[in-house]
Every structure is written in C-alpha cells, then in structure tokens.
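Our consortium's second objective concerns turning raw sequence data into structural hypotheses that experimental partners can test. To show how far this objective has progressed, the report includes one record in full. It was chosen at random from the queue rather than selected for favorable results. The single chain below, 153 residues long, was entered without modification.
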Amino acid sequence: MPAHMPSVQPLVGEAISQVWFSDYAICYLELGMLKAGRELPNGRIGTPRGEFTVFLGYDWKVQSEGVDRTRLDYHANDVELASLVAKLEGAVIRSVELSATDSEIKMCLSNGVNIFTVSANGEAPSWNIRVDKQVSGYLCIKDQELVFEPSRP
C-alpha cells in the first residue's frame, strides 16, 4: 500500500461522535471531532461531519448481547433507531476488520457491540470511509482490493 494511502487502522481508538440515518435506515457513523455541516442547495445546513465518516449502505447488521439485528429490523422504527444511536454514540472503535473476498467491514466497539456490513443476494455490500484528516478522500474495496479515491477539489 502506498505511504500516502490511509488504512482502516486510524479508526481504532476513535469515538463515534454522531450516528445518523438517511432514507431506508442507511447508516452513517461520524468519528472524531465534528465540523459544521455543509450548506445544502436548499439553504439548510447538513449534518455535522467527523474526521472520518463510515457509510454502511443498505446491508448492515448489529450484534449486541448475543442478538443479531439487521438494517431492516431498524427501518421505519424510530424507537429502535433511537436506541441504537444511544448504544453507538460515545463508543470507541476497538478493532476494524476488512474482508476483501466478500468486501465486508466489521467494527468491534468498546461497549461490546459489533457493527458490520453483510453481503446480500450474492452482491458485495456497499460501504466506504470518508477520510478528512491528513488527507481527504474515500477508502473502499473494489475488485477485492482496498482502494483510496482522493476527493476532487
């Protein structure tokens, strides 16, 4: 891996500062210091962004206290989503594992919760990590290889 390419290891030790969901309970984890959100085309200010943003896409799962729950278990259930946010916010990432063969990412947290992507319908899960610390871009797996795509100016 080139020296300028970030790895997932800098995520270890970072606290989850904010959790938010877009349509269909697509999950975003904001890690580290939060910056103000960007101004949106409609004039509103978007969600604050962390030094890292982990986007988990449509196919993610949470393991907690021996129970597995998928995105579909949380979708359209505000009480369950709020409970999940309370579990995740403030937790520290203890380990991050990548699987190139099935393109999955798994994060183990300080509170015993594991959150990870899953392959559904034989397709690779969609996830990425937005990096905005020393470099700026997106880390993901493409064609079974870890790839860093720099942000465009």
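The partners drew two points from this record. The chain is about 10% helix and 40% strand. Residues 1-5 have pLDDT under 50 and may be disordered. Both points have been shared with the crystallography group to help prioritize constructs.
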